[in-house]
Amino acid sequence: MAVLESRTKVQLGGRRGGPDLATLRGDRWWIQPIVTMSILTAFVVYSTWAAFQNRNYYVGSAVHRDLISPFYSPCLGGNCVPGSSIGFGIHGWAWSPALIILLFPLGFRLTCYYYRRSYYRAFWWSPPACAVADAHGSYTGESRFPLLMHNAHRYFFYFGLVLNAILTYDAFRAFYQPGIGWGVTVGTLVLTLNAVLLWSYSVSCHACRHLCGGQSRSFSKHPIRYKIWKFLTPLNAKHMNFAWASLIVVALTDVYVRLVASGALTDYRLF
Amino acid sequence: MADVTMRIWRGDAEGGDFQEYTIAQNEGEVVLDVIHRIQATEAPDLACRWNCKAGKCGSCSAEINGKPRLMCMTRMDELPEGTVTVAPMRTFPIIRDLVTDVSFNFAMAERIPAVLPPPMPEGGYRMFQEDVERGQEFRKCIECFLCQDVCHVIRDHEDNKHHYAGPRFFIRYAELEMHPLDTNDRRDYVREEMGLGYCNITKCCTEVCPEHIKITDNAIIPLKERAVDAHYDPIAWLGRKIRNGSKRSAAEAGVQPAP
Amino acid sequence: MTEYEHHDYDVLIIGAGGAGLRAAIEAKQRGLSVGIVTKSLLGKAHTVMAEGGIAAAMGNIYAEDNWQVHFRDTMRGGKMLNNYRMAELHAKEAPDRVYELEQWGALFDRTKDGRILQRDFGGHRYARLAHVGDRTGLELIRTLQQKVVSMGTDVFMECKVLQLVHDSAGRIAGAVAYWRPTGEFVTFGAKAVILATGGVGKSWKFTSNSWESTGDGHAMALWAGAELIDMECIQFHPTGMVWPFSVRGLLVTEGVRGDGGVLRNAEGERFMFRYVADMFRAETAESEEEADKWYADHSAGRRPPDLLPRDEVARAINAEVKAGRGSPHGGVFLDIGSRRSAEYIRRRLPSMYHQFMELAGVDITREAMEIGPTCHYIMGGVKVDADTAATRVAGLYAAGEVAGGMHGANRLGGNSLSDLVVFGRRAGVAAADYIDAGSGPADFDEGEVAAAIERALAPFTRESGENPYDIQRDLQDMMQANVGIIRNGPELADALTQLDGTFSERVANLKVTGGRAYNPGWNLATDLPSMITVSKCVTRGAIQREESRGGHTREDFPKASAEFGTFNLAHSVSAGTYDGEFATVRSPLLTMPDELKALLEEAK
């Protein structure tokens, strides 16, 4: 038996109490990982499909609408459909332009503290639920590459802010409809909701809370940071809710734009 | 009230098994009351650790129906109908019945570099409520070690006990890093020696905390972000170089575990 | 002969609560080797149960506050039975002991200008209790524990001391103990021993004390030749939970009343206005309006009667219940929900909120709590010298609840935590001085060790005998009924007969089943002799003190008597042995110097 280096004598590898079972829990602990796994899988499948479509992501002036799918904005390919480009792009890009920018929101969510909790539980079963045995024999957590890359979360957060700004601009632009003028359609509301939820997800992020104020030792010496931190703290407590809401709405926004762009649906004008 | 059947794990390092006791229930009782009654009648040598019976000392930790909980704060009437299973904490070596050897935790406590405030000015230190509030949340900890018990990093991987402090001590490190008077810097130490990177923030520690401390959100994640500040963030590193390192690293500060 | 492990230290400290840990820090700082022995794990001691705060006249809220006022409050609260010198040292040194906790990492609640916030408490003229919400005891023990650990102190956890060991000249030479996890014996050689074992409350049925409070230190000191004083003075805390029955006795902090909670009977009346004793009439509010004004501004009205010293409030509650105006489960109501906002209550009293929510299903922000008196604290204890905490046995010191004299006949809330750190430190200093003077023991009486071990193992060897739990239950029932909050001569006499007779016999003949490793039945069997010994002292004191004073109320002698106010009752056992005959004598109070007398006169 190994001994832990300390004044207190600790024998490692001692026999433990209780039966040698993966868990003694009798409740339905497996429901939560299954639900998480289902939603995340559905999202990944759909977003991969949507990202490779390379069409129906933009509704332009031809139909008096200006809606763009968040998966494709900003459209940075040299091959963007007319009207969707933000003015510059990668010349000669032949694949779907979604593939250029999706890396950033994907990275943001992949390194997000909340999603990490969810997919470690649902996909990696490490652990599948509290007091249920880890499915793996050895474990080093996030202390080695590649999971060490989670420490880059704040950089994805910064990029996320840029994307949020662009999607906010997209939503704003949607209210102006070429040939008609200002007006509100279901599509503009969808884009707006999407932008609001993405902002909520970003500002409720743990890295944001830390960078805006949490990092200081003494709040009384930094009253403004303290105010911001105080404001962000309750939002941070809802990070999980924003994570799910924004994930689902971003996919539904793409669905909506795709349906309108393909002509399957008319973007109903409210006023 | 109807009788209840308690399935209690009994045994020691040689092995053991569940034993069933059927016993009367009274209104408003907690699991520890029932255990005590079994002790006083059927099994005087049934080992269980307890002190205050009020959720303040954190002694009577066990796994009730498979969930890590305090026996004194688990009311019988909140448990589902049927047999109640009580087993010792899984993460620590067994002593006897429901009592485990938690000395791992005391060993980890010894390794914490102590608080290092400046000399006290006449009339005491000045600190403000907003400065102490974050630390006060962590100081609510009653050291029941349920978070250590549920943490799969050591629950399922004994070898990690060499280099992993566990949630209880991450909140202690967070408290010290947020302490308005402390001048020590333990960020590299927590990352390098105390296994901060081993935590994969699955939040079970927060789920089981009887004091409702937001262990993951308020302590571990802020610590991980501080580790990024100190070690991984190139911009923060550049900023430190420019400001000529007003913050010292743990190694520079000569932080050593307590003697 | 039984084999056992042995450890040598300069200072052996028995008990790891506030007093023991503070003493350890002091001795350690003097460069001595220190061993701490505790019955449970480090950090679980009963100190964690202290809720309201630590009393120290820092004057952060009311600049008028100073050690003189604190001294006066303590003496009056103690009904003048206190060791005046202890009360004086305590009042003078408490602020420094609080400030030094901050140096070790404690985080008290703050005032707006960044100083330590102080709260109102019963019997204290000014807001004086430094606190952290309603978990101040936890803060104290965690701070001291972390300091002790960082100093690299040896702590023997779950190790129960059975008896002190002398040298051939009668000086203290160490102790004999056993490990609870294994049941193996262990001896400690020490030049000085500091007792910091806490209280005795587990001998009563309704108590706020944990299983540990069995009076081991009281009993061991007595057996070792020290004297116990004021043992009849037991504090029944006025507000313990009364329902659910399984948590009856669990403490409800006085902070509830300090923060605006009031007591009501079943008719909704704030009955405390009818129970103001003459001694406190001048400074107590006469109407609800006046009392309510006081909370916001202490100069706008006089103190509410709900904040009278604990003995007064406990007796009033007892009388209301007896008069048939009690709550459904035999207590009265404590109402803060209708008087303060839910947010305020949750912030100021978080653990009370959880305690009632989780154990009783009562939301104290909306509903009143049902409360009643519960055995809480023993003012009496080992007779010590005020300045050094030394007992009359060379090398033996006592600090904290196990020591007597500081609180007289009744302790004020908040004075216990400050008592721990003030006299814990003093015991550490004195033990170090004693050792520096080269006054340690010459040898180690192995005979005492062998006898103690034999006694401890005897319950395993008997063919038949009683279950220790039955004896404990009967003892608790008997002490609650006969030596409870209101006492009388015949019941006390009956109690003493039972203690000397049947209980002593039953304990001498009990039987333990199972092995020695972590056997709670056996652990209880080794606690029972202490409980019986302490109960005898309490009962003997209660019989002989033919008056009512503080934590001792005789219905056959309802008034305080001037004659009884001049002495403590001191108990000892003949020849300082385990089986000796009890003796109880009158021990005159110390004479107070004139300048302190003047302080008390001024207040009148």
Description:
The complex is a heterotrimer of chains A (271), B (259) and C (604). In chain A, the strands form four sheets. Chain A has a two-stranded antiparallel sheet. Chain A has a two-stranded antiparallel sheet with strand order 3-4. A two-stranded parallel sheet of chain A has the order 5-6. In chain A, helix 1 runs parallel beside helix 9, helix 6 (186-203) runs antiparallel to helix 9 (239-261) and helix 7 runs antiparallel to helix 8. Chain A has 271 residues and is mostly helical. The mean pLDDT of chain A is 92. Helices cover 49% and strands 8% of the residues of chain A. Chain A has nine helices and eight strands. Chain A has one domain (30-261). In chain A, strand 1 (3-4) and strand 2 (10-11) form a beta hairpin. Chain B has helices at residues 31-40, 103-110, 129-139, 146-150, 152-155, 167-177, 187-192, 204-208, 215-232, 234-242, 250-253, and strands spanning 4-12, 15-23, 61-64, 67-70, 84-87, 94-96, 99-100. Chain B folds into two domains: 4-98, Beta-grasp domain (Ubiquitin-like (UB roll), Roll); 103-253, Alpha-helical ferredoxin (Fumarate Reductase Iron-sulfur Protein, Chain B, domain 2). Chain B is 35% helix and 14% strand. Chain B is elongated and about 70 Å long. Chain B is of the alpha+beta class and 259 residues long. Chain C is of the alpha+beta class and 604 residues long. Among the domains of chain C are: 239-375, Alpha-Beta Complex (Flavocytochrome C3, Chain A, domain 1); 454-568, Methane Monooxygenase Hydroxylase, Chain G, domain 1. Chain C contains 17 helices and 18 strands. Chains in contact: A-B, B-C. Chains A and B meet through strand 2, helix 4, helix 7 and helix 8 of A and strand 2, helix 2, helix 5, helix 8 and helix 9 of B.
